């Protein structure tokens, strides 16, 4: 799958067909001598901390963007918790009130960003 000089094509094609294999899982070109190791190290099923079974090569992406136990930060108080608890926490946390220094009213934390427009 690379450009090679025409003069070397037949030799190159013979070498590739003898020594290179396409991985049946990810379609990468892997030396035949390393295929078993590639499959065992990249495509073996592992269990995430959320108990989901996933291929090892996909685990980092899962942990970063799909795992319900990935770290998440509350937009109101900056506390870190797991993603699956974030929504309930932010509903509670955003409903807390703080006194506005300008008008003296108690304002819900979730409305503090917009409050200066209507304050006073």
TrEMBL record:
Looking at the UniProt record for this protein, which Gene Ontology cellular component terms does it annotate, in alphabetical order?
A: mitochondrion
Per UniProt, residues of the TRAFD1/XAF1 zinc finger domain are 78-120
**What does the entry give for GO biological process?**
negative regulation of innate immune response
What are the coiled-coil residue ranges? none
* A molecular function GO annotation: zinc ion binding
Asked if the Swiss-Prot or TrEMBL record annotates the protein with the keyword tRNA processing, the reply is: no
Q: Which Pfam families match?
A: TRAFD1-XIAF1_ZnF
Keywords of this entry:
Acetylation, Metal-binding, Phosphoprotein, Zinc, Zinc-finger
What is the stated purpose of this protein?
Answer: Negative feedback regulator that controls excessive innate immune responses. Regulates both Toll-like receptor 4 (TLR4) and DDX58/RIG1-like helicases (RLH) pathways. May inhibit the LTR pathway by direct interaction with TRAF6 and attenuation of NF-kappa-B activation. May negatively regulate the RLH pathway downstream from MAVS and upstream of NF-kappa-B and IRF3.
What is the protein name for this chain?
TRAF-type zinc finger domain-containing protein 1
């Amino acid at each position: 799958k690379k450009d090679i000089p025409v003069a070397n094509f037949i030799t190159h094609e013979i070498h590739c067909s003898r020594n290179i294999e396409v991985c049946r899982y990810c379609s990468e070109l892997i030396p035949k001598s390393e295929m078993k190791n590639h499959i065992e190290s990249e495509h073996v099923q592992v269990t995430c901390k959320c108990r989901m079974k996933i291929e090892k090569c996909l685990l980092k992406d899962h942990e970063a963007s799909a795992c319900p136990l990935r770290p998440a930060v509350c937009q109101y108080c900056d506390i870190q918790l797991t993603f699956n608890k974030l929504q309930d926490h932010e509903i509670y946390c955003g409903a807390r009130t703080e006194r506005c220094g300008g008008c003296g009213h108690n304002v819900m934390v979730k409305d503090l960003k917009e409050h200066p427009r209507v304050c006073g």
